[in-house]
Amino acid sequence: MTVSEQTTEPTTERHHPPTEQEVLGVIAGMLAAVLDEYGLDDSEVTMDARFTEDLELESIDLVTLAGQLRERWGDRINFAEFIAGMELDEIIALTVGRLVGYVVDRLQSAERS
Amino acid sequence: MAFLDLDGLRFHVQRLAPQDAGPPAATVVLLHGLLTDSLASYYFTLAPVLAAAGAEVLMYDQRGHGRTGRPPTGYRLEDFADDLEALLDRLEVTGPVQLLGNSFGGTVAFALAARRPEQVAGILAIESEPASPAWAVKLDGILRRAETELVKKSTLAWVAAKRGRHTARLAGAAGRLLAETSLARDIPASRLPDEAELRAIRCPVLTVYGTRSDLAPQAGWLDGLLHDCRSVFVPGQEHSVLVETPDVVRELALSWLRERGVQLRGPGVDAVLTPGVDAVLTPAGPVR
């Protein structure tokens, strides 16, 4: 696909896991690229925004996002594992904030180990 | 993300290696259905389970669907089967593969098995059937209706009210696919295999139906026609067995692969069927 490579880099030092705000910034950048393809407004990418209901993403877009997360942060970020076990309704109601929380958690625990 | 150019069309392909990085116990190809479907139906559900059990998993968006290219024409069954052949060749998947297809994805699986019997080790077909004259007539009716209805704002509003915005959005995307392509006219015009060709499918086949599905009554016909085919039924379900009962499908897929001699590994794969899953399935027809 034609989604351009995200260039947003965490502003923290290499050995510190990124903060919630930084992760949100990176994910918002990834989502903006997808939304831009649809010609949708990306101003609503907040922690409370729901992927399907508010951002109108389709499930195949979440596959794209999963690939970008892995490219950005490596195998520690496993989107499929993250939502495995969620019911369809729960996936539909998934918010950006919950994903941000997962990413921050994973990167912090990788830091500790 | 992985994109593969096959004969001028760009395919969105996802390939999962066995999670433990060991040699694959089997290669399982997951085939999605028409219109509202994409590889996303497997990516977050069945695919990681199979990869965790030691299988290599291959899935792709079929032409016109998901993130794969959408040519204006070329949507006969044989085009979809050509795609699968080209994909396996390009990825140099030479050994026999296990095919798992939902709805039209299963129809593609049967088409490949008829063409290349040596390359298909088994088929798990969910709410599916091989192409036949009756199939073509039925699909013609469904697709014609979808083509006129799914572009109407009133229909989509009705779907949104009855089934929610998410479903309405899927329906709208399906309407665009039909409006932009010749799919609705091409599918019924597919080359149909005769019964002799279907009898040439020698690999073991398990078909899964919802008891309330309009496909269920033909289980006996298919079981009798194919060399090695049996059916199970998921009570209370209609066509959306894969979406509505992912746990049942997961257990069925794992036990089917084990039954086929695939040496699955990883945590949890030795467990017997989850309590309840066994009980809800109704075996039917002689097991040969």
Largest sheet of chain B: 9 strands, mixed
From the helix content, strand content and strand pairing of chain A, which structural class follows? mainly alpha
pLDDT averaged over residues of chain B: 89
Q: Which segments of chain A are poorly predicted (pLDDT under 50) over 5 or more consecutive residues? A: 1-13
> Rg of chain B to the nearest angstrom?
18 Å
* CATH fold assignment of the largest domain in chain B: Rossmann fold
| Helical residue percent band of chain B | 40-55%
| CATH level 4 superfamily of chain A | ACP-like
Distance linking N and C termini of chain A = 35 Å
- Assigned CATH architecture of chain A: Orthogonal Bundle
CATH class descriptor name of the largest domain in chain B: Alpha Beta
Query: Approximately how much beta-strand content do the residues of chain B carry?
Result: 15-25%
Report on the biggest sheet of chain A. Answer: none
Provide the CATH top-level class of chain A. Mainly Alpha
Radius of gyration of chain A: 14 Å
Spans of chain B of at least 5 consecutive residues whose pLDDT stays below 50 are: 272-276, 284-288
Can you give the helix content of chain A as a percent range?
40-55%
What is the CATH superfamily label of the largest domain in chain B? Alpha/Beta hydrolase fold, catalytic domain
Q: What distance lies between the first and last C-alpha atoms of chain B, to the nearest angstrom?
A: 42 Å
Gross morphology of chain B: globular
Number of helices of chain A: 5
